[in-house]
């Protein structure tokens, strides 16, 4: 068997990327995603594509923020690993699959081949996430009316709130940031992401109880693919009252009132309380995601 040839694509041969089967439905899942041809890479064996990866970033990013489309042909896990190892960008890998993929043998085999390739390349699984998509036919979640929501222009207020929220968090990405740089790093990463989103800063809101205490924050947003629940967070001293649902309902209404025809969201599979709130609010799980981190030495280089 000949060794695979790994190379980047450009506008002239971008069609090569589409010659590999798509058993996990990545094309449909990324129908609103815009990729740059030169951020797509393929592994070819005897002229045939046996692995592919699409690295992605925002329109103004100078380097990708993740690789969110990764496929390998049957039996080509080593080629897939070589594709990931040889890339000039060692960033987070997202593997997306249809909801309930473990229950379908064909989907399970396809996903496990990609997981094997990622592990061979030195990637470690950080977390599994549930991806949601709300549409108007599902009905708007009821607003409980227990909290008062106000816009807050001061980033320092959100920074302080995020530090407090992440001091007792179930979110795997936040926990990784805390491990690597403390609560300040976790809070700043969140702020940087929300500023990166192409949605107005004026949308960010703080929620207050009738007594004037801060209950939490919610950040309605648009990512490059459309409207989404950017962040839902309840203050540690206000937990146990079901306020996460109130924040989620308000966030959904807020986006719909500003023209959203769908709203996407995500939470870690292990965040059972938040998953229950999404279910209560009528958000169905449409896909599942496995987030892998590249080798630690690549992240710190």
Q: How would you describe this structure to a colleague?
A:
The protein has helices at 26-29, 77-86, 105-120, 155-166, 172-196, 243-257, 272-280, 296-300, and strands at residues 5-8, 40-45, 48-56, 66-72, 92-98, 124-134, 148-151, 205-208, 214-223, 226-234, 263-268, 285-293. It is of the alpha+beta class and 301 residues long. It contains 8 helices and 12 strands. It is 32% helix and 29% strand. Helix 2 (77-86) crosses helix 3 (105-120). The longest helix has 25 residues, at 172-196. The protein has an 8-stranded mixed sheet.
Give the termini distance in whole angstroms. 34 Å
Rg result: 20 Å
Q: What structural class do the secondary elements suggest?
A: alpha+beta
The pLDDT mean sits at 95
Helix content: 25-40%
Global geometry: elongated
Number of helices: 8
Enumerate the spans where pLDDT stays under 50 for 5 or more consecutive residues: none
Major β-sheet strand ordering:
1-2-3-4-5-12-6-11
How much of the sequence lies in strands comes to 25-35%
User: Which H/E pattern describes the elements?
Assistant: EHEEEHEHEEHHEEEHEHEH
Biggest pleated sheet: 8 strands, mixed
Q: Based on DSSP secondary structure assignment, what is the total number of beta strands?
A: 12
Organism: Streptomyces dubilierae
Protein name: GNAT family N-acetyltransferase
InterPro entries: Acyl_CoA_acyltransferase, GNAT_dom
Domain N-acetyltransferase: 163-301
List keywords for this structure.
Acyl_CoA_acyltransferase, 8-stranded mixed sheet, GNAT family N-acetyltransferase, 4-stranded antiparallel sheet, alpha+beta, 301 residues, 8 helices, GNAT_dom
């Amino acid at each position: 068997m000949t060794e695979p040839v790994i190379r980047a694509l450009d506008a002239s041969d971008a069609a090569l990327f589409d010659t590999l089967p798509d058993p996990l439905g990545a094309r449909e899942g990324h129908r609103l995603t815009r990729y740059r041809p030169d951020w797509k890479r393929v592994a070819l064996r005897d002229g045939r594509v046996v692995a592919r990866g699409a690295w992605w970033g925002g329109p103004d990013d100078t380097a990708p923020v993740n690789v969110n489309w990764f496929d390998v042909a049957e039996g080509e896990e080593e080629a897939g690993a070589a594709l990931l190892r040889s890339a000039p960008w060692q960033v987070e890998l997202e593997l997306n699959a249809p909801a309930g993929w473990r229950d379908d043998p064909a989907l399970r085999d396809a996903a496990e081949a990609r997981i094997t390739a990622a592990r061979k390349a030195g990637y470690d699984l950080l977390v599994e996430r549930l991806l949601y998509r709300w549409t108007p036919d599902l009905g708007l979640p009821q607003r409980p009316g227990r909290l008062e929501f106000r816009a807050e222009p001061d980033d320092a207020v959100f920074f302080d709130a995020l530090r407090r929220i992440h001091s007792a968090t179930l979110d795997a990405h936040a926990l990784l940031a805390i491990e690597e740089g403390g609560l300040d790093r976790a809070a700043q990463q969140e702020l940087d992401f929300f500023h990166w989103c192409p949605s107005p800063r004026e949308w960010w809101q703080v929620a207050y109880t009738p007594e004037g205490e801060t209950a939490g924050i919610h950040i309605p947003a648009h990512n490059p693919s459309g409207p989404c629940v950017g962040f839902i967070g309840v203050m540690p001293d206000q937990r146990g009252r079901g306020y996460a649902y109130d924040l989620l309902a308000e966030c959904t209404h807020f986006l719909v009132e500003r023209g959203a025809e769908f709203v996407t969201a995500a939470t870690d599979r292990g965040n059972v309380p938040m998953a229950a709130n999404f279910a209560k609010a009528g958000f169905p799980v449409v896909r599942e995601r496995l987030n892998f981190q590249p080798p630690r030495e690549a992240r710190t280089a």
